[in-house]
Amino acid sequence: MALNLEDKKAVVAEVSAKISAAQTIVLAEYRGITVGDLTKLRASACQQGVYLRVLKNTLARRAIENTQFADLADQMTGPLIYGISNDPVAAAKVLNDFSKGNDKLILKAGSYDGKTMDKASVQALATIPSRDELLAKLLGVMQSSVSGFARAIAALAEKKQAEVA
């Protein structure tokens, strides 16, 4: 279905709004992917807070004009799905994980922190733990330290009581 000019402007405005808050964009070719698989990918992206959209490349180029992602315009060829996330790792992780189980989804490029990434760089970014994972690990370390300290104090108190008795 062809979009009229107003629809195109609305799409560009919507994508521009997502891009203005984004830290990462990942591009992947989706040639030959089934509707069911695409639905699974969208569900996974939604759970991770990733904005996932199939766009006309000309509209995507307009949306990234004058942003930190402008260098990606050269990579925007072919049937692409765009993963956009506020989390630096989420878009790369969602698309990379899905591409491991579906050979029809091929990572193409990405951009993080104003730098264009090739496929290998996107895959490397996907291996970094997300912010939430890092916070959970930090909390676990902090809790184990506090509980270990509490056990040591309790043992010391028992020892002092045993000496007094």
UniProtKB/TrEMBL annotation:
Coiled coil residues, start to end: none
Any single Gene Ontology cellular-component annotation: ribosome
Annotated CDD domains: Ribosomal_L10
UniProt keyword annotations, A-Z: Ribonucleoprotein, Ribosomal protein, RNA-binding, rRNA-binding
Pfam families (UniProt xref): Ribosomal_L10 (PF00466)
Signal peptide boundaries: none
SUPFAM superfamilies: Ribosomal protein L10-like
Domain of life of the source: Bacteria
Ribonucleoprotein listed as a keyword: yes
Homology family: Belongs to the universal ribosomal protein uL10 family.
Subunit structure: Part of the ribosomal stalk of the 50S ribosomal subunit. The N-terminus interacts with L11 and the large rRNA to form the base of the stalk. The C-terminus forms an elongated spine to which L12 dimers bind in a sequential fashion forming a multimeric L10(L12)X complex.
HAMAP family to which the protein is assigned, alphabetical: Ribosomal_uL10 (MF_00362)
Cited function: Forms part of the ribosomal stalk, playing a central role in the interaction of the ribosome with GTP-bound translation factors.
Protein name: Large ribosomal subunit protein uL10
Lineage: Bacteria, Pseudomonadati, Pseudomonadota, Betaproteobacteria, Burkholderiales
